[in-house]
Write a structure and sequence with these properties.
Shape: elongated
CATH superfamily of the largest domain: Ribosomal protein S6/Translation elongation factor EF1B
Oligomer: single chain
CATH class of the largest domain: Alpha Beta
Strand content: 15-25%
Order of helices and strands: HHEHEEEHEHE
Largest sheet: 6 strands, mixed
Number of strands: 6
CATH architecture of the largest domain: 2-Layer Sandwich
Number of domains: 2
Helix content: 40-55%
CATH topology of the largest domain: Alpha-Beta Plaits
Structural class: alpha+beta
Number of helices: 5
């Protein structure tokens, strides 16, 4: 009987100790752990956002560097820039687009940039035109496609004078412009 009483007292003390430890010491740990997990998750999201912004800023810095001229008389800002014309004709050759005419326009200079227009007359299909414009978008130069006109050649389908005429090919006129940023003093 005495042994049972001692065992009951030890069991009550052990149970009371476990209950008090759980309610006063351990009860806050799961909540703190969840709070720390949430803090870590928020900081990871901020870190990922900062890495993405850093990569995009590198792209923007590269874009500005490739389009920045020291003055309006710089070779990058001149009319009919030979490297740009070579770039355009290279794309046209890659895509097998026939260049009929390429006319540089008169550049217009502002205080902080120079806009140089070009008019291209091409013989291409719609698909090739889309690929051409896509390649222009991916260029390191700032290029805007201002206008394009497509001669859908309804006359070709009606007139049977040319047996081997390619009906998917059309005469297209594009007006594009390059923008060159001028470094401010």
């Amino acid at each position: 009987m005495k042994r049972n009483l001692i065992l009951l007292v030890v069991l009550v003390l052990f149970g009371g100790g476990a209950w008090s430890y759980y309610h006063w010491v351990f009860a806050d740990y799961p909540q703190q752990i969840r709070q720390y997990d949430r803090t870590i998750q928020l900081r990871d999201e901020k870190l990922i956002s900062a890495q993405i912004i850093h990569q995009q800023l590198d792209l923007v810095a590269n874009l500005i560097e490739k389009n920045l001229a020291l003055s309006k008389s710089d070779s990058l800002a001149e009319d009919a820039s030979l490297p740009f014309l070579g770039y355009i004709t290279g794309i046209l050759d890659d895509l097998d687009i026939k260049l009929i005419k390429l006319e540089p326009g008169k550049k217009s200079a502002r205080l902080d940039y120079v806009r140089t227009p070009y008019t291209l007359t091409l013989d291409a299909s719609y698909k090739k035109l889309g690929k051409f414009i896509n390649r222009l978008e991916k260029s390191e130069r700032l290029i805007t496609v201002e206008q394009f006109e497509v001669d859908n050649a309804i006359r070709k389908s009606g007139a049977r004078t040319e047996i081997d005429a390619d009906l998917s090919s059309h005469i297209m006129t594009l007006r594009i412009s390059t923008l060159t940023l001028i470094k401010q003093r």
